[in-house]
From TrEMBL:
NCBIfam families named in the record: XylB
Keywords noted in UniProt: ATP-binding, Carbohydrate metabolism, Kinase, Nucleotide-binding, Transferase, Xylose metabolism
GO molecular function annotation: ATP binding; D-xylulokinase activity
Identification of the protein by name: Xylulose kinase
Species for this entry: Streptomyces flaveus
Domain Carbohydrate kinase FGGY N-terminal residues, every copy: 9-246
Positions bound to substrate: Q81, H82
């Protein structure tokens, strides 16, 4: 048996690239075992994954955890948001899942916004103006391009829902992940029947939205999982809401997450409604709100630039007057789904290191542009930004955020915050505690604070100017994808 002080719980992060599992001591927050297994994502015009890969990866990650997973009393799954999972009557995928960064539904997104009252009406109705990342636009795309797949669909799920259902046999979701679909109304906290009718989606195909802290079921008697029979299953949630739980986030503290996508968000007690569409008015996993802005191009885009230049990702050089907008996958913030990368200001004496720094600057500029919009008016804008995600450990990312924000930056020592947040949620269903309070008890946000430096106003103005001048080019649809 484990020498843990309290019961063990499992937190899962099923992300774009892999599934990770942590076995955590619910009393102390100590990670006693971990595992990870990869996924594959299609390339080309779409971004798709077979959901069965996620299950296989979860099984592998759990088996890597050894006996500790068998001792766990509860489990919860945090997962990539927005993905459209279509299942047939036997519970098997009809087709590969359309992932959050598949932007083929941009025409359907524009049409849906126009047909149902415009941006302001959508923001008031669902909290967000749906772009091509949102699940409702992917369903509309599927109905238009693959009607036979729609006819074969007996259940519609999000990625975390799919794994939770494989664990329990029950179709459930939570308010945090449901709020990213475009068919969940944030005002009433229920599925929006008008939106569902408009896109031809029967609400009977959707999972039940469970309450925060509810036990959604127990792990089925399954011979291919290391869990004990009867292990409790918590609601799970979307990855950003899970990371907010993992940090024990309180209202007013801003988070910059640097991963495959870049996000900036904060917990709020006020329901967000941004008619510009920059801020998504997501719910959190507790009962509050999680206004969030997301970019499609973050660490992978900058790493790609470094690879093209043949230099290390940390080999940046100062003094650049070059602007590089790294919109390699189109972009969500700003809303430029058809954009590609853009380079301006190249000179004979420009160095590879300066080009790489320009890529960092372009990625961070997009995130900081939305920072004030996600914070409540009374939030302390001199407080440290919490920097998380895979990029947060990189010196070049840290220094770029400091220089372009002019704010101190805190880098939590805890890793795998999505999985930790899911673990805190699992601990909460055992103890009856609020999951964020569990994470604060674990002191997950502890980490060094990097002092503020003077904000680089010249770089911010230069990037904004190029973005404005190049808007017609960036908005032009290209067939070269």
């Amino acid at each position: 048996m484990s020498a843990a002080e309290g019961p063990l719980v499992v937190g899962v992060d099923t992300s774009t690239q892999s599934t990770k599992a942590l076995v955590v001591d619910a009393a102390t927050g100590e990670v006693v075992a971990s595992g990870q297994a990869p996924h594959t994502v299609s390339s080309g015009a779409g971004r798709e994954s077979d959901p069965r890969q996620w299950w296989d990866a979860l099984r592998e990650a759990l088996h890597q955890c050894g006996d500790a997973a068998h001792e766990a009393a509860a489990v919860s799954v945090g997962g990539q948001q927005h993905g459209l999972v279509t299942l047939d009557a036997q519970g098997d995928p009809v087709r590969p899942a359309l992932l959050w960064n598949d932007v083929r539904s941009a025409p359907q997104a524009r049409r849906l916004v126009e047909e149902l009252g415009g941006p302001k009406a959508w923001a008031e109705r669902t909290g967000s103006v749906p772009g091509p990342s949102f699940t409702v636009t992917k369903w509309a795309w599927l109905a238009e391009h693959e009607p036979e797949a729609v006819r074969a669909t007996a259940a519609v799920r999000l990625p975390h829902d799919y794994l939770t259902e494989r664990l329990t046999g029950l179709g459930t979701t939570d308010r945090g992940d449901a709020s990213g679909t475009g068919w969940w109304a944030s005002g009433t906290e229920a599925y929006d029947e008008e939106v569902l009718r408009h896109v031809g989606l029967d609400p009977a195909l959707l999972p039940r939205v469970v309450r925060p802290g509810e036990v959604v079921g127990t792990v089925r008697d399954s011979g291919d999982l290391p869990f004990s029979k009867g292990t409790l299953v918590a609601p799970g949630t979307g990855d950003n809401a899970a990371a907010a739980l993992g940090l024990g986030l309180r209202p007013g503290t801003a988070v910059l997450s640097l991963g495959t996508s870049g996000t900036v968000y904060a917990v709020s007690t006020r329901r967000p409604t941004d008619p510009t569409g920059t801020v998504a008015g997501f719910a959190d996993a507790r009962g509050d709100w999680l206004p969030l802005a997301c970019t499609l191009n973050c660490t992978l885009a900058v790493d790609r630039v470094a690879t093209l230049l043949g230099i290390d990702r940390e080999a940046v050089e100062p003094g650049t007057s070059v602007t590089l907008l790294p919109y390699l996958d189109g972009e969500r913030t700003p809303d430029l789904p058809h954009a590609s990368g853009l380079l301006h200001g190249l000179r004979h004496d420009t160095t590879p290191g300066q080009l790489l720094q320009a890529a960092y600057d372009g990625a961070v500029h997009s995130l900081l542009g939305a920072l004030d919009l996600v914070l409540d008016a009374d939030a302390d804008r001199s407080a440290p930004l919490l920097l998380i995600g895979g990029g947060s450990r990189g010196t070049a990312w840290q220094q770029t955020v400091r220089r372009l924000s002019g704010r101190p930056v805190q880098v939590p020592e805890a890793k795998e915050l999505v999985a930790l947040g899911a673990a805190a949620q699992a601990a909460g269903v055992l103890t009856g505690e609020d999951a964020a309070a569990v994470a604060r008890r674990w002191d997950t946000a502890r980490g060094p604070v990097l002092e503020a430096v003077e904000r680089d106003e010249a770089a911010l103005a230069r990037i904004a100017g190029v973005l404005s001048d190049a808007a017609p080019l960036l908005e032009r649809q290209s067939d070269q994808r």
